[in-house]
Design brief:
By secondary structure, the protein is mainly alpha-helical. Helices cover 82% and strands 0% of the residues. It contains 19 helices and no strands. Helix 3 packs antiparallel against helix 16 and helix 5 runs antiparallel to helix 16.
C-alpha cells in the first residue's frame, strides 16, 4: 500500500464517528419519532374526541391539521434560526415548550382550545425537526455513516407516522384521549438530559442576520395556501378560497424576490435549481400525502366499520409499521449501487398496490386485506423516504444544512396537512353526498350523522332498534363508497411521485456531496 493510500484511509477513519456519535443519533431520534407520531396519533383518538368534545366536521379536520399547518409554516424560519443561533439550542427550547404544551392539550375542555393547543405545539415542533436532521449532517461527516444514520432516522420518522395509531390504540384502551398528548413528556425528558452531554452544538460558521420581513413573508405564503386547500376540500371553491390563494402566491413571490436579492438570504433559492433536490422534495411531499391520507380513513374504517377497539385497530397496523422500518434500512445498500431513478419508483409501485387493495376492501370482513395493504404501502413509503431524505441533505452545503433540513421537513408537514385536508376533505364530501338518511330519523340525529361517520355511529347507538341499525348501515355504505374513490386518488398521487422520481433524481447511486 502506498503512502498516499495510507493517508487517505487514515483521513477516512478520522472522519468516522464512534459510539458517541451513534448514541447522539439515538437521542436525536426521540424528537423525530415523537413529532411524526403526533401527526397521526390523533387519527385513532379522533372518535373519542368527537364523542367527548362534539366538534363539527370542520373542527375535526382542524384538530388534526392545526399542528402540521403551523409546523409547515415555521420550519424554514426555525431551521434558519438554528443555523444562526445554534441547532442544539433550538432543539432544547423546542423540547421544553413541546412537553409543556402537550400537558395542557391533554386537558383541553373544548374543541376550540384543543385546536389552539395543537397550533402552539406546531410552533415548538418546528424548532425540533430541522435541528435533528441538520445535527446529523454535522455529526456524521463520513458519507457512508451519514447515509446509514439518515436511513435509521428516516425509517423511524416514517414509522412514527404508522406508530401513532398503535400508540393511540394502546393508550385509549385504558386511558382518556388526553393520554395521547401526555406521552410526550416522558419521551422528551431523556432528550433534555442527554442532548447537552452527547450532541455537540452546531451552527453556520458565517451567520447572517435575522430577517424579520422574510419570516413574515414565509408564514404569509404557507398559511393562506394551505388554509385555502382545506376550505376548498371541505366547503368547495369560493371567493374566500381564491383570495387566500392569491394572497399566498403574492407573498411567495415577494419572499422569493427578497431571497434572490439579499446578501445573506434566509433560504438559498439556488437549492431549488438542483433537479435532485427539488425532485426529492416532491417525492417526500406526495409520499407523505399518501401515507397520512391512508391512516386518516383506515383508522376510522377499522374502528367504526370493522368494529375493532382502538388497541385492536392499532395492532392491525403493526405489520405495516415493521415493513416500513425494514424497507428503510434494506434500501441503503441497494441505493449505493442502483440509481435513485430506479430505486424510488420501484419502491413506490408497492404503495400504489396498497392503495388499490384499499379500494377493494369493504365491509366488516376487510381487516386482512387492509393489513396487507398497509404493509405494501409502508414498504414503498419507507424506502422512498429514506433515499429522498439523504439526497436532499447531500445536495446542500453543510452551512445550509438547517435550511435544507427545514425545506425537507416543510415538504413532509405540508404532505401531512394535504393528506388529511385533501384526501380527508374529499372523503368527507363523498360521505355526505352518498349518505341517504333513513326516513324517521330525528333531525338532530340526522345532522350529527351528516357531519362525520363517528357522529352517525353515535346517533345510531342512541336510536337503537331497526331505525338505528338502518342509519348505521347507510352511514357505513356512504363511508365505504367515499373510501373507494379516495383510494384511487391516493394511488394516482403516488404514481405522480414515482414519475417525478424517475425524471429528476440523480442518475448515479447517490447525489454528489456539496461543499460550501
Amino acid at each position: 500500500m502506498s503512502l498516499t493510500q495510507e493517508i487517505t484511509l487514515a483521513e477516512a477513519d478520522a472522519k468516522r464517528v464512534g459510539w458517541r456519535g451513534w448514541a447522539a443519533l439515538a437521542v436525536l431520534m426521540l424528537p423525530a419519532l415523537l413529532v411524526s407520531v403526533d401527526n397521526t396519533v390523533l387519527s385513532f383518538a379522533l372518535p373519542a374526541i368527537a364523542l367527548d368534545l362534539g366538534p363539527t366536521s370542520t373542527q375535526q379536520l382542524w384538530i388534526i391539521d392545526a399542528y402540521p399547518l403551523v409546523l409547515a409554516g415555521l420550519l424554514v424560519t426555525m431551521g434558519t434560526l438554528g443555523d444562526l443561533f445554534g441547532r442544539r439550542r433550538m432543539l432544547l427550547i423546542g423540547a421544553t415548550g413541546f412537553a409543556a404544551v402537550s400537558a395542557l392539550a391533554a386537558f383541553a375542555p373544548t374543541a376550540t382550545l384543543l385546536i389552539a393547543a395543537r397550533a402552539l405545539l406546531g410552533v415548538f415542533g418546528a424548532m425540533l425537526m430541522p435541528a435533528t436532521l441538520s445535527l446529523l449532517r454535522s455529526i456524521f461527516v463520513d458519507r457512508d455513516q451519514r447515509r446509514f444514520a439518515i436511513a435509521i432516522w428516516a425509517s423511524m420518522f416514517s414509522a412514527g407516522s404508522a406508530l401513532g395509531p398503535v400508540v393511540g390504540g394502546l393508550l385509549l384502551e385504558s386511558f382518556a384521549w388526553g393520554s395521547v398528548f401526555l406521552m410526550s413528556v416522558p419521551v422528551l425528558i431523556p432528550l433534555l438530559i442527554l442532548a447537552p452531554i452527547l450532541v455537540p452544538e452546531s451552527r453556520n460558521p458565517v451567520p447572517g442576520r435575522v430577517d424579520a420581513i422574510s419570516i413574515v413573508l414565509s408564514m404569509a405564503t404557507m398559511v393562506p395556501i394551505v388554509y385555502a386547500i382545506k376550505e376548498a376540500a371541505v366547503e368547495g371553491f369560493s371567493g374566500l378560497v381564491a383570495g387566500l390563494v392569491v394572497a399566498g402566491i403574492v407573498a411567495g413571490a415577494l419572499f422569493v424576490h427578497r431571497q434572490l436579492h439579499a446578501e445573506a438570504p434566509m433560504l438559498d433559492m439556488r437549492l431549488f435549481r438542483r433537479r435532485t433536490f427539488s425532485g426529492a422534495l416532491v417525492v417526500n411531499l406526495l409520499s407523505v400525502v399518501g401515507l397520512v391520507g391512508f391512516l386518516y380513513f383506515v383508522a376510522q374504517h377499522l374502528q367504526l366499520v370493522v368494529g375493532l377497539t382502538p388497541i385492536q385497530a392499532g395492532f392491525a397496523l403493526v405489520p405495516g409499521l415493521a415493513g416500513m422500518i425494514v424497507a428503510g434500512l434494506v434500501v441503503v445498500p441497494i441505493a449505493k449501487r442502483v440509481s435513485a431513478r430506479v430505486v424510488v419508483p420501484s419502491a413506490l409501485v408497492f404503495s400504489v398496490a396498497g392503495y388499490l387493495m384499499v379500494a377493494a376492501a369493504t365491509g366488516p370482513q376487510s381487516l386482512g386485506l387492509l393489513a396487507v395493504a398497509f404493509v405494501a404501502l409502508g414498504v414503498g413509503i419507507g424506502a422512498a423516504e429514506t433515499v429522498s431524505n439523504e439526497l436532499i441533505l447531500a445536495s446542500a452545503p453543510p452551512s445550509k444544512a438547517g435550511a435544507a433540513s427545514a425545506v425537507s421537513e416543510t415538504a413532509y408537514e405540508l404532505g401531512a396537512v394535504l393528506g388529511t385536508t385533501v384526501l380527508g376533505g374529499i372523503l368527507t364530501a363523498l360521505y355526505r353526498a352518498n349518505l341517504d338518511v333513513p326516513l324517521g330519523v330525528p333531525a338532530q340525529a340526522a345532522d350529527a350523522a351528516r357531519e362525520t361517520l363517528a357522529g352517525a355511529v353515535h346517533a345510531a347507538d342512541e336510536l337503537g332498534g331497526t331505525l338505528g341499525a338502518a342509519l348505521a348501515d347507510a352511514a357505513t355504505h356512504a363511508f365505504e363508497a367515499g373510501v373507494g374513490v379516495t383510494a384511487f386518488i391516493g394511488a394516482a398521487l403516488v404514481v405522480v411521485a414515482a414519475v417525478v422520481a424517475a425524471m429528476t433524481l440523480s442518475r448515479g447511486s447517490s447525489a454528489k456531496p456539496q461543499a460550501d
